């Protein structure tokens, strides 16, 4: 018989339990206890640091940066074009994911006072969590349980049994397919097409709709499409996969080709390729969490219909699936939990801050707040200004050929920015100024007095503000 006394000694009572040890879970735990005597446990069944650290943000950007440097070197007079070292690119990726070793992440967590447990966690009752590990222990939370379990790829039924790639295979690429189909036209599809083409794959992008990156200003998708064509990526719009079969499908390991050739039937014809990447979206990872034990369903999570002791944050909550946004939400949540638990004043919060995002394609796409279409849909009367990305000396100095556009969306009534988009080389570095302007609700007449340095790309701000109607640039009487 099991030693129940030993099992009982393994049970824990702490202030905060976090299920899921990705970047969002780490931030939630850290902010919930920092500067206090509160205690927290993170339960993680895989690598501490999560999807972003090992299978998404970090490895993808590690692969994309060499392509950006090589592209710049080939388009600036006085510089010999760089030669891509494909093996070196993969080694760089491996270094940035710490060779899939999370020991440094565990050391950081423990240094902040967070206890890390390995295993699968699920709710068993109010404020109680069961961890399926060697000790099979129960953790009781005095104040809060936080679900930070992230998201998982959604693979359409037509790919069932073909063992196609997901985004983790693409970032963890070991064997570069000679012929690769990517299904999707969003951020993951466009970024993956960029680095996999750079690694030597012949990439065909199958897009169900008629444009790329449809949640952005239309010129963003147009510019990215031009960049892809320059690098040999074939893009087929208005195309859906109707059937998929593979010769000898098998799981061969992360980033390896999963069997024999793949035959695709699509609404635009048939294709035979070596591998398929399904970049068809993600969904909150909410299965096997024991929600039914506390009378809840995944719909309660998405609708924020939760008891006061239970919280969801990041991708698991159905919020915008961006790491930096999830981390921000986790910091706010953690600070709020700490204040309630300790009796400290409620932390200051900003209502509805804007969501920024950078897409690391060629050219880069940087967007924050509302597009013109989204503002119109919300009934906001807006004025816009748009200029070419090469409209200032700073951007013209970056490369011989500077593609892209910059656009701002301004609320006519308040004269404050509600959205901004920059598409061009290193466009991501322009985004935070727009984020600050929208968050701080800085009206255009004041924003005009923020002087950009010469010659920098930030002078685009001057051109954009000058392009607005005169009445938007004057202080109100």
Blueprint of the fold:
Layout: H1 4-10, E1 12-19, H2 23-33, E2 40-44, H3 50-55, H4 57-73, H5 86-96, H6 103-111, E3 114-118, E4 120-125, E5 128-132, E6 137-147, E7 151-153, H7 167-171, E8 179-183, H8 187-198, E9 202-206, H9 218-230, E10 234-236, E11 241-246, E12 262-266, E13 269-273, E14 275-278, E15 282-284, H10 298-302, E16 310-312, H11 323-342, E17 356-359, E18 364-369, H12 372-377, E19 382-388, H13 393-396, E20 405-411, E21 417-424, H14 431-439, H15 444-447, H16 460-466, H17 470-473
Parallel strand pairs: 1-2, 1-6, 2-3, 6-16, 8-9, 8-14, 9-10
Antiparallel strand pairs: 4-5, 5-6, 7-15, 11-12, 12-13, 17-18, 18-21, 19-20, 20-21
Helix pairs in contact: 2-11, 4-5, 4-8
Number of individual domains:
3
**Estimated structural class:** alpha/beta
CATH class of the largest domain: Alpha Beta
CATH topology of the largest domain: FAD/NAD(P)-binding domain
Query: Can you count the beta strands?
Result: 21
Parts with pLDDT < 50 across at least 5 consecutive residues: 1-8
Instruction: Tell me about the largest β-sheet.
Output: 7 strands, mixed
Helix run count:
17
Q: Separation of termini?
A: 84 Å
Helix content: 25-40%
């Amino acid at each position: 018989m099991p030693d129940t006394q030993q099992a009982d000694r393994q049970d824990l009572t702490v202030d905060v339990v976090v299920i899921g040890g990705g970047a969002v879970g780490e931030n939630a735990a850290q902010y919930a206890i920092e500067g206090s005597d509160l205690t927290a446990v993170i339960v993680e069944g895989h690598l501490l640091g999560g999807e972003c650290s090992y299978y998404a943000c970090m490895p993808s950007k590690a692969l994309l940066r060499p392509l950006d440097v090589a592209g710049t070197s080939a388009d600036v007079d006085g510089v010999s074009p760089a030669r891509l070292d494909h093996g070196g690119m993969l080694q760089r990726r491996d270094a940035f994911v710490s060779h899939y070793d999370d020991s440094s992440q565990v050391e950081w967590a423990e240094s902040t006072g967070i206890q890390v447990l390995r295993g699968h966690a699920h709710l068993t009752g109010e404020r109680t969590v069961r961890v399926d590990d060697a000790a099979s222990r129960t953790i009781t939370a005095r104040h809060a349980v936080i679900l930070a379990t992230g998201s998982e790829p959604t693979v359409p039924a037509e790919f069932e049994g073909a063992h196609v790639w997901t985004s983790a295979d693409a970032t963890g690429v070991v064997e570069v397919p000679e012929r690769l189909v990517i299904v999707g036209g969003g951020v993951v599809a466009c970024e993956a097409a960029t680095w996999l083409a750079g690694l030597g794959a012949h990439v065909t992008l199958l897009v169900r709709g008629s444009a790329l990156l449809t949640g952005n200003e239309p010129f963003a998708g147009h510019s990215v499409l031009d960049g892809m064509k320059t690098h040999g990526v074939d893009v087929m719009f208005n195309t859906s996969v109707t059937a998929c079969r593979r010769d000898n499908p098998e799981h061969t390991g992360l980033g390896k080709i999963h069997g024999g050739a793949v035959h695709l039937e699509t609404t635009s014809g048939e294709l035979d390729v070596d591998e398929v990447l399904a970049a068809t979206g993600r969904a909150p990872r909410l299965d096997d969490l024991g929600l039914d034990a506390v009378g809840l369903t995944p719909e309660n999570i998405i609708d924020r219909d939760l008891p006061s002791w239970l919280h969801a944050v990041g991708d698991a909550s159905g919020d915008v699936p961006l790491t930096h946004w999830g981390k921000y939400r986790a910091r706010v949540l953690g600070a709020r939990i700490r204040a309630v638990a300790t009796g400290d004043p409620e932390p200051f919060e900003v209502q509805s801050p804007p969501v920024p995002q950078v897409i690391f394609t060629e050219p880069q796409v940087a967007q924050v707040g509302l597009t013109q279409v989204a503002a119109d849909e919300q009934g906001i009367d807006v004025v816009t200004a748009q200029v070419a990305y090469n409209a200032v000396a700073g951007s013209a100095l970056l490369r011989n050929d500077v593609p892209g556009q910059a656009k701002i969306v301004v609320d006519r009534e308040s004269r404050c920015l509600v959205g901004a988009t920059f598409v061009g080389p290193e466009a991501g570095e322009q985004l935070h100024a727009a984020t600050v302007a929208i968050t701080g609700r800085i009206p255009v007449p004041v924003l005009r007095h923020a002087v950009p340095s010469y010659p920098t790309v930030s002078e685009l701000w001057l051109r954009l503000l000058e392009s607005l109607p005169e009445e938007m640039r004057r202080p109100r009487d």
